[in-house]
Amino acid sequence: MEKKKLTTASGRPYTEFDNSQSVGNRGPILLQDYFLHEDMAHFNRERIPERVVHAKGTGSFGTFTVTHDITRYTKAKIFSKIGKQTKLFARFSIVGGEKGGADSERDPRGFAVKFYTEDGNWDLAGNNTPVFFIKDPKKFSHFIHTQKRDPKTNCKSPTMMWDFFSLNPESLHQVLILMSDRGTPFSYRHMHGFGSHTFSFFNKNNERIWVKFHFVTLQGVKNFTAKEADEMKGIDLDQAQRDMVVAIARDDFPKWALKIQVMTDEQAKSFKWNPFDITKVWFHKDFPLIDVGIMELNRIPENYFRDVEQAAFDPAHVVDGIGYSPDKLLQGRLLSYPDAQRYRLGVNYEQIPVNQCPYGHSNYQRDGLMQVGDNGGANPNYRPNSFDDIVVDESYKEPPMQLESSIADWFDRNENDDDHFTQPGLLYSKVMSEKDKEHLVSNIVSSMNGISGEKKDEIVNRQLSHFFRADCHLGKAVAKGLEVTIDEKKMKAFSLGVKCE
Description:
Mean pLDDT: 92
CATH architecture of the largest domain: Beta Barrel
Shape: globular
CATH superfamily of the largest domain: Catalase core domain
Number of domains: 3
CATH class of the largest domain: Mainly Beta
Order of helices and strands: HEEEEHHHEEEHHEHEHEHHHHHH
Largest sheet: 10 strands, antiparallel
Helix content: 25-40%
Strand content: 5-15%
CATH topology of the largest domain: Catalase HpII,  Chain A, domain 1
Distance between the termini: 78 Å
Radius of gyration: 26 Å
């Protein structure tokens, strides 16, 4: 193999890599030793701002292969024919934790996929859960703050967390998932993924239908118990990342089956809950899963920072045949996600190789920090103009979306949509096994025992009332674990008239 010359970043061959230029053997260092300063200045800038959310994760390249025909729902070229393959990059992460946190922390997991399609990149940025804690984006930063550190002590605070949960009962569905063993996945390979939000499909006839995306792990679901997760923190902080790297290195390529649920406008109008509310699910018996294809991850990046750390996902990045929905939290993310990437990586973040559309792009955006392409060359940077050959292809025009109201106002997010308890109750009573219930209660009690301060009883009682309204047995079990006495008067107040035997 031909050897490469040692050079500076500008390409100048350099010989004195080990020793700084100085006045005499013991003398002071000269300012003119450029490589010394270049090396130290680069080192000082090696860390880009940490992601506020999804800070620590791992990623892999792979492919998506269509196995079933869904062209009656969407004209997206990625799904155009059975057997079609599309390259992709997937990133998995802990959500509230920090860059140096443990992979086995109790936390939701990010599940983001960038599909490199011929109509542009499609980013499906979701989690390992089908629901979320909040449904209005104005609450997002406040929720995340409760998962970070107390501004006074700089420690994680169960009081902050449960205070927020108890004041926002719409969080209950996700709280039960988080506090179950699903809150501590064994690895990224052994968990499901979800687009979580409701999106839309439209077909070649511009007929729109609502859709939810599910990635079903073909490795089987595997979770840690709380005890196992705590033990793993002392064994390997990077267990989930290492598991992914080792599996792919031995050609044990992880796979997920992509499935969808679809809902018509008529069904959406008659659905018991708001179908665009991310704190709710669509029941599979009413809206069965439809097979679409297989995602396989088969290549670990050669350089973690280049690809995983600089990967930028944005739910606003959809392609022809896929659209948004009135989901309020999704609408907020369409703004906040690309703004976060511009802050972390610069306005030209989509020129970074892992984020580039391999099929190219044509627009009039120019200049800015880290412009590393041809910057549009000599072509005009304005439109309309008389010189270039960029045209608008009207076949990509998205069909209009019918809105339910013409009134703009600040609507109470829970007005006529305050059933925060039926679905969590069904999750507890109908879906969870007795072992699942036992672990859930144990994890809730362990976490809530960390609530402290003068508002402790208020926070505990408020959260207990949510548990009772979801399922009386859940409420009683948590109350017993917390050693809270529940008399008949308190039982009636907690259950708000729901029969509790």
